[in-house]
Amino acid sequence: MIPIYSQKNRIKFIVVIIALIIGAATITYTNILVSKLSEREQELVQLYAKGLRYMISAPSDDNIVFIEEEILSANTTVPVILTDENENILDSKNINIPENIADDPEKVNEMLQRQIEKMKAQHAPIVVPWAEGSVNYVFYKDSDLLSQLRYYPYVQLMVIACFALMAYFAFSYSRKAEQNRVWVGLAKETAHQLGTPLSSLMAWYEYMKVSPKFENEPIVAELWKDIRRLEIITERFSNIGSVPLLRDENIYQVTQNAINYLQNRISRKVEMEVVSTFSPDITAKINVPLFDWVIENICKNAVDAMEGRGNLTLKLLLLGKSNIAIDITDTGKGIPKSKIDSVFLPGYTTKKRGWGLGLALAKRIIDNYHRGRLYVKSSEVGKGTTFRIVLNR
């Protein structure tokens, strides 16, 4: 694999770890603040309860006024409900009562009773001893500020995550667009460079074909085969440099033709077979020169993986009503699980001599130009690999 790809994966992993650490630190610190604020509010309610107790046994009216103004009224944030020992509501504080029920005591009481149930779920009530052995209860719950602070870090992290995803997709799209320009530029330049020698070869072929010196010479026929091959390669690069035209083609026949061409150009110890599970007249939308290139690249890689000896099977299947699958299975060395995600990266190769562009180019042709899919369906080290091509009908 090209070193830059392993570096990029490592950097991505480090960035994710740092993000998780920052997120965990933010949540932990906020929870500490929430805990301290919760303790403070609990102390405030305790003080409120003590003020009520003191009012019961206050020796003078002045003290009662002081308690009322300086302690009981000091609580402006924590919702509090005072009840008797039977939980009949006596008073409430900092409870937002909707205007549409404010004039209806029965509905107000029902609403406050529901609030009491919520308060019970958060905190145990504070018992306030009352006259003649009876008691009152002070129910309370977290203030709005405390509730907002409790959920604030999660909202903050969600917003950060959304922006991170938007940035990731933006940069990913930009990177792919740049790669597209590189691929297209390279393809057009290659097709252009091939054009000049190809024209010269065609002129030489026409000369040799009519020259008595080369009459009945097999080299002339072989030269034409090579010229035709160069024309196909030029057409392939031209199609990559532009939007290729997709036509309904007999997929079995096209696949069989591609295999027939390869059969005479690879090891005779490799058995190649095309198996169709559907009617031979089924068609798929493909560009034949580009599709042949894909089959050629995958099959040549398979032959290399088998070291020139083994079985290569291409199985055609229907996937529902709208797709066709071609499974290309070899009996080669297989791909380790850790490398499966890397085989389609430009530059990935296990050969001593190789650019590592064959599978990357094949995937681009199927995914981008044919709007299909090319992926490793299965692989086992020492037994072989199956690549799957999915095409549209």
Automatic annotation (TrEMBL):
<dbReference type="Pfam" id="PF02518">
    <property type="entry name" value="HATPase_c"/>
</dbReference>
<dbReference type="InterPro" id="IPR004358">
    <property type="entry name" value="Sig_transdc_His_kin-like_C"/>
</dbReference>
<keyword id="KW-0902">Two-component regulatory system</keyword>
<keyword id="KW-0547">Nucleotide-binding</keyword>
<dbReference type="GO" id="GO:0016301">
    <property type="term" value="F:kinase activity"/>
</dbReference>
<dbReference type="InterPro" id="IPR005467">
    <property type="entry name" value="His_kinase_dom"/>
</dbReference>
<keyword id="KW-0067">ATP-binding</keyword>
<dbReference type="InterPro" id="IPR036890">
    <property type="entry name" value="HATPase_C_sf"/>
</dbReference>
<feature type="transmembrane region" description="Helical">
    <location>
        <begin position="151"/>
        <end position="171"/>
    </location>
</feature>
<keyword id="KW-0808">Transferase</keyword>
<keyword id="KW-1133">Transmembrane helix</keyword>
<keyword id="KW-0472">Membrane</keyword>
<keyword id="KW-0812">Transmembrane</keyword>
<protein>
    <recommendedName>
        <fullName>histidine kinase</fullName>
        <ecNumber>2.7.13.3</ecNumber>
    </recommendedName>
</protein>
<feature type="transmembrane region" description="Helical">
    <location>
        <begin position="12"/>
        <end position="34"/>
    </location>
</feature>
<feature type="domain" description="Histidine kinase">
    <location>
        <begin position="189"/>
        <end position="393"/>
    </location>
</feature>
<keyword id="KW-0418">Kinase</keyword>
<dbReference type="InterPro" id="IPR003594">
    <property type="entry name" value="HATPase_dom"/>
</dbReference>
